[in-house]
Amino acid sequence: MRVLVVEDEQLLADAVATGLRREAMAVDVVYDGAAALERIGVNDYDVVVLDRDLPLVHGDDVCRKIVELGMPTRVLMLTASGDVSDRVEGLEIGADDYLPKPFAFSELTARVRALGRRTSVPLPPVLERAGIKLDPNRREVFRDGREIQLAPKEFAVLEVLMRSEGAVVSAEQLLEKAWDENTDPFTNVVRVTVMTLRRKLGEPPVIVTVPGSGYRI
């Protein structure tokens, strides 16, 4: 899942990004509304975690732009105000969910995952294919009943492949969905991660390489 965190409190923004990355999400971070508009014009995000009171361009205007562009991106709006009228106004602008500060990180993560499931064709909370069972919420993977321990990026790649439901996923798509924008697009990190993932999943191999196209399960 690709997430953009937009928050002018840099310590909070970086802490949220670090936590979401530990949950196997690809996360970009910006600290003002103008930078947010620039990022959403370049990258495809499943979810934008958007502070409402932003410098340069207000969070409301960023949200309106996402709606205006007809993007499938879901918006989780954050604010220091817990007033009901503020929450209603944020939802009327086009936000998909609203979370007042301070918040529990576990709740934010759950809301981000719930919104992420709504950006594509609805799928069950637990994904199953080729003997593999993947639970994004619990961060658990089983193959034929055996639990498999995966690093965050390995989990993210497997989740993208599972969500594709047998379709071929290119290396570029994996890079976009499982890594943030600071990753060198010319690196072999995707190939190495897929190799490690194959080894951990065991025999017989379930990840198929489609020459010149990408990978599928």
TrEMBL record:
<keyword id="KW-0597">Phosphoprotein</keyword>
<feature type="domain" description="OmpR/PhoB-type">
    <location>
        <begin position="124"/>
        <end position="217"/>
    </location>
</feature>
<dbReference type="InterPro" id="IPR036388">
    <property type="entry name" value="WH-like_DNA-bd_sf"/>
</dbReference>
<protein>
    <submittedName>
        <fullName>Response regulator transcription factor</fullName>
    </submittedName>
</protein>
<dbReference type="InterPro" id="IPR039420">
    <property type="entry name" value="WalR-like"/>
</dbReference>
<dbReference type="Pfam" id="PF00072">
    <property type="entry name" value="Response_reg"/>
</dbReference>
<dbReference type="InterPro" id="IPR001867">
    <property type="entry name" value="OmpR/PhoB-type_DNA-bd"/>
</dbReference>
<dbReference type="InterPro" id="IPR011006">
    <property type="entry name" value="CheY-like_superfamily"/>
</dbReference>
<dbReference type="InterPro" id="IPR001789">
    <property type="entry name" value="Sig_transdc_resp-reg_receiver"/>
</dbReference>
<feature type="modified residue" description="4-aspartylphosphate">
    <location>
        <position position="51"/>
    </location>
</feature>
<feature type="DNA-binding region" description="OmpR/PhoB-type">
    <location>
        <begin position="124"/>
        <end position="217"/>
    </location>
</feature>
<keyword id="KW-0238">DNA-binding</keyword>
<dbReference type="Pfam" id="PF00486">
    <property type="entry name" value="Trans_reg_C"/>
</dbReference>
<feature type="domain" description="Response regulatory">
    <location>
        <begin position="2"/>
        <end position="116"/>
    </location>
</feature>
